[in-house]
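Work package 3, deliverable 3.1, input record:
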Amino acid sequence: MTLLLFAALALVALVGAVGVLVSRNPVHSALFLLLNFAMIAVMYFLLSAQFLGMVQVLVYAGAIVVLFLFVVMLIGGNIGPLRSESRPLARVAAITLGALFLLAIVLGVAGNLPVAEEAVGAPDAGSVQAIGEVLFTTYVLPFELVGILLMAAMLGGIVLARRYIPYRPHDANNEEER
Amino acid sequence: MVPTTYFLILAAVIFGIGAVGVLVRRNALIIFMCVEMMLNSVNLTLVALANHWGNLDGQIFVFMVMAVAAAEVAVGLAIIMAIAQHKDTTNVDEINLLKW
């Protein structure tokens, strides 16, 4: 039963992943990305990581995809060709490299995972309480640093996305324009 | 119970699709989405292995990765927007100012 659920989720997640790749319209790409993120969130619940499942929905599906959609709307939907015209061989090379890469990962991953000795996968292993206890004791310093990182990123985003206003202190006209 | 290997293989396939997307697509926004997808597939790997070994450290790491991904998206999208306003394109073939 769980296996069937996993198969269905995996199929939809892969459809989402391929959809991001092949959509011509960036808005469709963003929505396929949302599908992929949502399926991975459900998989976190399957893996008894409830907290991360909720965070996935909030941060990825909520914040990041909405941010992508904002930017797509701001820049405009029509953004360039689907593939490189200046380098026609680039696409073939990219797909070949990607396929080899994929093969290497799958062969490396499949089959040789040692079996865990203890019984694992307790249903409440990833609850908010369990995560919170570890996060605020063992990992409290990285947690605080993440706060600083997010603030720096927020300031950087504001500075970068601001409309470019040339700084001309000696230009009298500049004052009147404002 | 679903075997952990299945999750790992699914994550590897999503990672591969994301990598192909980064290589094939020429729109900076789509490339960025594919990078996010690759980050997400690695997160899935970490959660699957954390569940496999009954250890919470993997989940903490995923939490950190999510925070870094959020920061990266904020700054990266701001850069893409600045480029789009400056050059009127997000095609990475045309953004070659630093290329010799």
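Chain B is about 80% helix and 0% strand.
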